[in-house]
Design brief:
Two copies of one chain form a homodimer. The first copy, chain A, is an alpha+beta fold. The first copy, chain A, has eleven helices and 16 strands.
Amino acid sequence: MAIRIEHGTTAVAGFRFAGGSAGLKKNGRDDLAIAVADEAVPAGAVFTTNLVRAAPVDVAAEHVARGRLRAILANSGCANACTGDLGLAAARNTIAALGRALGIPAEQVLPASTGVIGTVLDAAKVAAAIPALVASLSESPDPFAEAILTTDRGVKVANARGAIGGRPFVVQGIAKGAGMIHPSMAPLVPHATMLAFLFTDANAGAASLAASMKTVADATFNQASVDGDTSTNDTLVVLASGRAATPIPRGGAVDRELEEAMTLVCEELARMMVADGEGAEHLVELHVSGLPSNEEAVRIARTVATSPLVKTAFFGKDPNWGRLLAAAGRSGVPFDPAHARILIGGIPVVERGLGVGAAAEREAHEVMTLPSYRIDLVLGDGAGQARCLTSDLGIGYVRCNADYRS
Amino acid sequence: MAIRIEHGTTAVAGFRFAGGSAGLKKNGRDDLAIAVADEAVPAGAVFTTNLVRAAPVDVAAEHVARGRLRAILANSGCANACTGDLGLAAARNTIAALGRALGIPAEQVLPASTGVIGTVLDAAKVAAAIPALVASLSESPDPFAEAILTTDRGVKVANARGAIGGRPFVVQGIAKGAGMIHPSMAPLVPHATMLAFLFTDANAGAASLAASMKTVADATFNQASVDGDTSTNDTLVVLASGRAATPIPRGGAVDRELEEAMTLVCEELARMMVADGEGAEHLVELHVSGLPSNEEAVRIARTVATSPLVKTAFFGKDPNWGRLLAAAGRSGVPFDPAHARILIGGIPVVERGLGVGAAAEREAHEVMTLPSYRIDLVLGDGAGQARCLTSDLGIGYVRCNADYRS
C-alpha cells in the first residue's frame, strides 16, 4: 500500500496534547506545549551536533537513552542555552513539575526549548502554567503545534498513513523552525532550534527507533539549510504508542514501511521549514552530482547552499550561474570546471563550463520566480551525489535577524 | 625609522599610470586601467585558490612566474571568468594590444579583471581604448585607482614610507573590492574579485617578492571576509622599480622593513575593503584565542565571521553573544563552552560561558554603534589564536547582490 502524505493535524491513538501560555514570550503568544502518551512508550531521538548545546538537550538525551518516554514538555520564547548549572536546574525543575502533575517520574519527560540563547528558562512560570495545560489535554495536536512556534509564519504539520501486515498506522509530525536552520543531528550527541516531534501508533522498539531517527534525519532535515547556522537546540524525537498493533519485523528493526512514512513526514516538514526560512520567498532544491563520492558532493552542496552571494541571487531571481560555480570552486573539492553542467528548473544554463546564453537565462529567470524550484550542478562523471534544501536570502531575513532581540 | 602610513595616492619613482573607459561597464564609468614601469622590474604575486579561476588569472600567473613585469592591464565590468578558450584568447589579445602600444613583449604584461562572471571580455573594445590610455600615462595613480572599481564606494589607496640603510622608499597600494570578498590566496595558484596592486621604488628580487606576497597576504587579506565567497579573480601583485636604490639584504630576501611596509599597506587596504563590504556599516575585528593551535582558532574565526546570524546581529547592533558562541560551537573545533569568555570592545559580556548581564550588554550595544570595533572570543588556555576582519550583513548587502546583474 502506498504511503499517503496529509496536511493538517490528526489524532494519533495513545497520545494527548495541550498548549498554552506561560508568559515566556513578550508578545503574550502561546509558548508552552505538552504531549502525553497513555503509558511510557518506546522513543528514539537525535539531537544537534553543535558543541554548544542547551540544557534541555542534555536532559533530553539522558532521558531518551532510557528507551521509553511518557511525555514531552516543549517551550518557545527561551532556548535555555548557554545558561550553565542554572539552566540545567531550570530544565530539571520544569519536567519535575510536569511529572508531578501527571503522576509520572520526571525521567519519562523529554524537555525541548527554543528561543533566545543566554537566558535561563523561568521554571516558576512554566510550573505555574502546567496544571491548566494538563487539565486541557485532548486528542487535538493543534494547541501543541501552535505553542512551539517562534518566528515561524505558521504551524508545520504533516502526516503519513500506511499499513504493515494489513494493519493501518499513522505517523504525525509536528515541527517548528525558521531561522538558525542548518540541522546536523547525530544520535545522542545533544544540540536545537529546529524541533520536530513524531507521534505514531505503529509498533517499534526503542533501540531501533533511535537508529531509524538517524537515518531519517540524514535523509531529510540534515539536508536542509536556511542560514548554515546549526542551532544549539535541534531535536527530532519519535514516540510510538503501538496502539495500531502493527507487527514488528523479526530482529526488532523498524518496519520499512514505518521508516518510509517517517521519512516522508520529515521531508515534508523539512521543506516547510526551509520554505518558511526567515524572510524566504523561494525553496530551492539543490542537487549536486558527478563527484567521485557522496561526501565530496555534500561538501559542495553545503558550500553552494550557504553562499550569501548565491542566496541573494536567488532572492533577486537572477540565474547568476557564475556564483554557483564560484561557490563550488571554493568548497575545497576538486572537479573540472570545464566539464560543469548547470540546470535551473531543468533548463541548461551552463554546458561544459560555459554559459548557454541569454535566452536560456531568461527562461531560467522565469523558473526562479516560482516559490519552489530545482537546481542541478553536474560536475563530472562520478556516482557521488548530494541534495540540499535551501532558501533565498532576502531583506526579510536581515530584518528578522537584526531585530530579533530588540 | 618607524614606517608611516599615508592615505591618498602618491607618485612612485619608476611607474606611470592611466585609466579610462573601454565601454565595458553599462553605466559608462571608467573600466580600464594600466600601470607601466619604466623597464621590466622584479614582481611577485599571489592569486585566488578558488578552483574556478578566471582566464586573466591563468595568464597572470604564467607571466609573473617569469619574474619580471613591465605593465599591468586591469579592467572592471567583466571578470572574464568561466569563459573557457574564448576568455583565454580575449585575455591574451588585450595584453598583446597593450604590448604593441608600449613596444614590449606581451609576456611582460599582467592582466587582471573584475566584474560579472560568465561573460567573455570584449577584447576589441579594450584594444580600441588602449592607445588613448597609453597617451595619457602620468605619474598620478588616480585614474588607475578609479578605473578598477566595481561596487566599491570609493578608491582604496594606502601608502607606507620607510627607509632601508638610510635610503627612503615608498610602497603604494591600490585596491578594489567590496563583494565576493573572502580571499584565500596562495602563490601561483591562480583565482580574484579582490584586486590589489603594490608599487614600490625599493629594491627586491622577484623570487623573494613572490614569497613575501604569500606572507603578506596571509597576515592581511586572507584574514578578511565580507561574505565568505572567495572570488574567481583575486590577485595581489607587487612591482619593485628599485629606483630608491635601497640595499638588498645578504641572501636576497626581501628586507624586513620593506615587508613590514607592504604588510601595513595591505592591512590598511584589507580594512578598507571590509569596511566597504557591500552595504556594510561596521568593520568588526574578530579575535579568537585560547585554542590548542592557530589552525583551530582560524577555523572558529572563519565560521563565526561568516555566520549570517552573527552578521545580521552586527547589523542590528545587538550584542547577541549566544549567536557568537553557537557559531563557534558548530565549527567542528572542540572547546569547552563553560570556559568561554567574550568581550565586545573590551567589555566582557560572557564569563565562564554565561552572560554577564544586561548592563554589560547595554555598554556593548553602544560599542556596536561604532563604525569599527573589536570582539574577542577567548575559548580556553591554549596559545592558538586567529584574527578575522568581517562586516555586518545588512539590507544594503542584499540589495546590492540581488540587483547586481539586473
